[in-house]
Amino acid sequence: LQSLPFQKIQHSITAQDHQPTPDSCILSMVVGQLKADDDQVLGFHQTFLLKNFQGAWVCTNEVFRLALHNV
């Protein structure tokens, strides 16, 4: 993490949705905003799959995307 090109980062979660899957996992989607140093605020969404493994929830899959647009 020390090699990342920013010193501080702030985040705000604006929405989140969670639902069970047929195989007893939990599918979660989070939408929010990130601000690194003095850069502009960027939207993001993140989706991940949680699975109960021996009594602990483990993230087995994850997708993160910044909401960047070429307008």
TrEMBL record:
Tell me the GO BP annotations in alphabetical order: mRNA transport; nucleocytoplasmic transport; protein transport
Query: Pfam family of this protein, just one?
Result: NTF2
Q: Does the keyword Nucleus apply?
A: yes
Q: Any idea where this protein resides?
A: Cytoplasm; Nucleus
What sequence ranges are listed for the domain NTF2? 1-66
One GO location term (cellular component): nucleus
- Membrane-traversing stretches: none
- What InterPro entries does this protein's entry cite? NTF2, NTF2-like_dom_sf, NTF2_dom, Nuclear_transport_factor_2_euk
Q: Which CDD domains match?
A: NTF2
Mainly resides where? Answer: cytoplasm
Keywords of the record: Cytoplasm, Nucleus, Protein transport, Transport
Q: What is its biological role?
A: Has a role in nuclear-cytoplasmic transport of proteins and mRNAs.
Name-wise, this protein is NTF2 factor
Organism in which the protein naturally occurs: Cettia cetti
